[in-house]
Specification:
The protein is mainly alpha-helical. 78% of the residues lie in helices and 0% in strands.
């Protein structure tokens, strides 16, 4: 599941960077621009580290570059043709999703017991996604983003990420020797298992639909503090 989702990170994060930067060019808010500087640095570093992760997948024998090229091309095309308000809305929605998944990752036994290098990569990324989870949302609001547009962008982000990452997961499973039917069945069972282990996941995702919602309404400070202490992050 993480491998399939990871394939979307680098180009997705470059998309987020451009949209937030374009949004900031339309507003005059020193505090928000200061917060965005941290966002830019973190997202840039994420893309670099996850590109390195691609090399590890290839060393293990997985083939995904042609499929990834198509997904990347689609993201780049949407960046060129969609209006800024929708691009910012998609970014804000996707950032909420990654923050929710980040909190889930910091509280997941299987990730905690995974290979140390993989565990640290996932948890480090999760911490930083939570740290800057409100930046894109606040830029969207500051540029006049409406509630209907916010919901529309969120739904588009969820749909694209779900369809694309699901395709990648199934393809990786097939390369592991599973049939299409087996891959579909295993993926469904894994998703159901994740929802059952993390009952707050669904609630956190749907919270975004509340008109009064703000990303900081969800408090993950305890999870983040514990993970930062373990990773030695000051």
């Amino acid at each position: 599941l993480f491998n399939g989702l990871n394939l979307l990170f680098p180009e997705g994060e470059r998309f987020f960077l451009r949209e937030v930067r374009d949004g900031l060019n339309q507003i005059d808010n020193p505090d928000l621009k200061q917060q965005a500087r941290g966002f830019f640095g973190q997202e840039t570093q994420h893309a670099i580290e996850h590109e390195k992760f691609f090399d590890i997948l290839e060393q293990q024998g997985y083939k995904f570059r042609p499929q990834l090229k198509k997904a990347t091309g689609f993201i780049q095309k949407m960046r060129d043709i969609l209006p800024l308000s929708l691009r910012l809305s998609i970014t804000a929605g996707a950032e909420h999703l990654t923050a929710v998944l980040g909190a889930t990752a910091l509280n997941d036994v299987e990730i905690e017991n995974s290979h140390p290098a993989m565990r640290d990569l996932i948890q480090w990324h999760a911490i930083e996604e939570i740290e800057h989870k409100a930046v894109a949302f606040d830029v969207f609001k500051a540029t006049g983003g409406s509630y209907p547009m916010r919901v529309f962008g969120y739904l588009n982000a969820l749909l694209f990420i779900h369809i694309t990452s699901t395709y990648f997961v199934k393809d990786l499973l097939r390369q592991d020797g599973y049939s299409k039917r087996e891959a579909k069945k295993l993926l469904k069972a894994s998703q159901q298992n994740m929802l059952s282990k993390h009952p707050s996941l669904r609630q956190s995702l749907t919270a975004y639909f509340k008109p009064s919602f703000h990303p900081n309404d969800i408090d993950e400070s305890g999870l983040v503090g514990t993970a930062m202490q373990r990773l030695g992050i000051v």
